[in-house]
């Protein structure tokens, strides 16, 4: 079995942006005037350091394109349009040691959300390329499902072009197409490669998405355990065989509500490196069938088939 080795950066950079009709020159003063939050002391202690830098930017001198920021869901499209049409922006940048994650990015996003609330603006994550769903205060507990990775489904059935049959109606529908390719965006800020799953038939897109989510959470939990040992290497080696559990999926959502009376056994998957910064998810090597046979079979826990987003 060939192990997987990937580089682990000593520091990572994340950027969050707020678009509004008017962005004040003194963004630090805006934060100091806001009501107390659990992150207030962290924000105050990091302001002006590489761990929390505030800049005011405007068109046409931007080094990034606000029109490329997208809404994760249809109800956020108006906010995405407002963001793309804005001319003034507040940018929150965090350049922090990998061992300072996830607190460093939580503090930075809390600051961005606070600025957005103060100026009536729209906030976005420049790493995931997505508009924030809400300006609610950042919770103190880290939950990966809180928009830390871009993990939304593509337009259903290839934007209406796909004619693959539902497997319940036609057994051949299990492998009726290979339209869906999913990839995370955001794991890199925690020092991990992104993960992807591809060649998935449209009827299994939700199962594939949830396998991606559970795998991302499993890798992140394992990565933080490794970092806690104080490694000195700038590379990490992991096994390509991963046993993912219902608990990993629950941890992705930050809940235990979906644990069944009889816990589902782990399901095994295979990781393979596509680049030093991207891993592919496939069925285990001893599985006799396609990725769609794997997703449609009885291998995955029940929760993988019915949860698309948190209410």
Write the layout of secondary structure elements.
Blueprint lengths: L3 E4 L3 E10 L6 H6 L7 H7 L6 E6 L18 H9 L2 E10 L5 H17 L2 E4 L4 E2 L24 H5 L19 E4 L10 E7 L4 H23 L7 E4 L2 E4 L1 H8 L13 E9 L2 E5 L8 H6 L15
Parallel strand pairs: 8-12
Antiparallel strand pairs: 1-9, 2-4, 2-5, 3-4, 5-6, 7-8, 10-11, 11-12
Helix pairs in contact: 6-7
What is the strand content? 15-25%
The separation of the N and C termini measures 41 Å
Low-confidence parts: none
Average predicted local confidence, pLDDT: 89
Number of helices, counting only DSSP H or I runs of 4 residues or more: 8
Order of helices and strands: EEHHEHEHEEHEEHEEHEEH
Shape: globular
Question: What is the domain total for the residues?
Answer: 2
Helix content: 25-40%
How is the biggest beta sheet arranged? 5 strands, antiparallel
Over the alpha carbons, how many angstroms does the gyration radius reach? 21 Å
Strand order, largest beta sheet: 3-4-2-5-6
Secondary-structure-derived class? alpha+beta
Care to count the β-strands?
12
